[in-house]
Amino acid sequence: MLGYLAPYRGQRYHLNDYPGNRGPRTAREKFNHAHSSLRNVIERCFGVLKARFPILKMMPPYSLRKQRDIVIACCAIHNFIRRHAMEDDLFNEYGVDDMIIPGEGPSDPSDTATYANLTVVESQRRRREMDSYRDGIRTGMHLHYRLPL
Fold first, then answer.
1. Where is the DDE Tnp4 domain (predicted)?
2. What is the DSSP letter of 58?
3. DSSP classification of residue 9
4. Which pLDDT score is estimated for 95?
């Protein structure tokens, strides 16, 4: 399965939309809250990598293959440091729960670029597949948390 698993439009999404004890009220909001939380963790991980390896902030115009290899090498070195360092101050700095990384990621999570080499029909098919997959997750959350759909 290839595609972007988009949050539901028209529902609360950002972690700031859930202040205090005002948690998700529906299964769609629960999905969006989980999506936002996971996205936040991923953005913090990228923040750590960019802080540790400045080349990732402004990638030189290398071939895509070389850029991919640089990112993989940085991740491998980072994982080595994490595995063998007693304390990793940089990781601890970014490890605060619900830390919002300003300027990271698109402002509208649904507003992502589609794959340039896909036909319109293929793009629409993949989007329907991902929407169906998302609905399956939402249904599971509905049953597990007993939230209205």
1. 19-79
2. S
3. T
4. 67
Give φ, ψ of 55 to 5 degrees. -60, -25
Residue type, 103: G
Q: In this model, does residue 40 exceed pLDDT 70?
A: yes
CA atoms within a 13 Å half-sphere pointing along the CA-CB vector of 28: 9
Task: Give the pLDDT score at 118.
Answer: 63
Average confidence (pLDDT) over 28-48: 92
Cα–Cα distances in Å, from 93 out to 20, 48, 51?
A: 24, 9, 11
Half-sphere CA count of 133, side-chain side, radius 13 A:
13
What integer pLDDT is reported at residue 71 of this predicted model?
96
Q: Quick check: pTM over 0.90?
A: no
Q: Measure CA of the first residue to CA of the last residue in the chain; give whole Å.
A: 25
Domain spans, the chain: 15-113
